[in-house]
From TrEMBL:
<feature type="domain" description="Bacterial bifunctional deaminase-reductase C-terminal">
    <location>
        <begin position="4"/>
        <end position="165"/>
    </location>
</feature>
<protein>
    <recommendedName>
        <fullName>Bacterial bifunctional deaminase-reductase C-terminal domain-containing protein</fullName>
    </recommendedName>
</protein>
<dbReference type="Pfam" id="PF01872">
    <property type="entry name" value="RibD_C"/>
</dbReference>
<dbReference type="GO" id="GO:0009231">
    <property type="term" value="P:riboflavin biosynthetic process"/>
</dbReference>
<dbReference type="InterPro" id="IPR024072">
    <property type="entry name" value="DHFR-like_dom_sf"/>
</dbReference>
<dbReference type="GO" id="GO:0008703">
    <property type="term" value="F:5-amino-6-(5-phosphoribosylamino)uracil reductase activity"/>
</dbReference>
<dbReference type="InterPro" id="IPR002734">
    <property type="entry name" value="RibDG_C"/>
</dbReference>
Amino acid sequence: MQILARLCMSADGYVSTPNGWPPQVVDPAHGPGSHGIAEFLETCEAALMGRTTFEPALTNDFWPWPDLRVFVLASERPAGTPDHVTVDSDPARLLSALRAANRGGDVHLIGGPRTIETFRELGALDKLELVVLPFLLGNGLRLTDALSVETGLELESSRTLDAGAVEIVYRVAAGGGVSEAARAGWAPASQRD
Ligand SMILES: NC(=O)c1ccc[n+]([C@@H]2O[C@H](COP(=O)([O-])OP(=O)(O)OC[C@H]3O[C@@H](n4cnc5c(N)ncnc54)[C@H](OP(=O)(O)O)[C@@H]3O)[C@@H](O)[C@H]2O)c1
């Protein structure tokens, strides 16, 4: 089982619109299975997310994850949550439940950034997949509003999707990212001690 975070982001780096929707929903190319999600989900058996990302599904016209077991990190079970959804306030306990239920498939860590950071801190984030959309938003939520900039990334693959989107798949590396000192110093890597 691998835990795979996959998010869409605008070309200027926002993972939500200014009013809090995932950016792909304002893309004219958005639809069932769009942005490579159908292919991605072929190896997934579970969806994992935080309460903020989960709650809009409760008032959707259709259940967004008909083929996946659903796990939600939330301090309280949101009203109207179907019985088959596992909700827990403790990330380590939720991870144990996820592992106990696993039948060998991968887990789609849908988001948002706070929940991705939570599982990264637990050492449970295997990959970060970004789908960069061909438009600018100018404002919204950034991935690194919550996800640590110390997250180490190793490029695994990239490809162009339909309608001008680009998919970038990173393995999350144990070694960490660009250090705070390097970023603060603004020195090119070649000029650092
Ligand atoms: N671009 C994309 O593809 C994409 C995908 C998903 C989401 N999004 C966007 O991301 C935004 C939401 O992201 P977010 O980071 O603000 O929220 P989130 O991760 O969806 O949910 C945050 C909630 O999860 C629970 N939680 C997270 N970490 C926890 C921890 N360590 N311990 C206990 N509970 C924890 C808390 O629930 P309680 O408050 O109940 O304690 C917290 O308020 C939305 O705007 C959504 O549209 C974008």
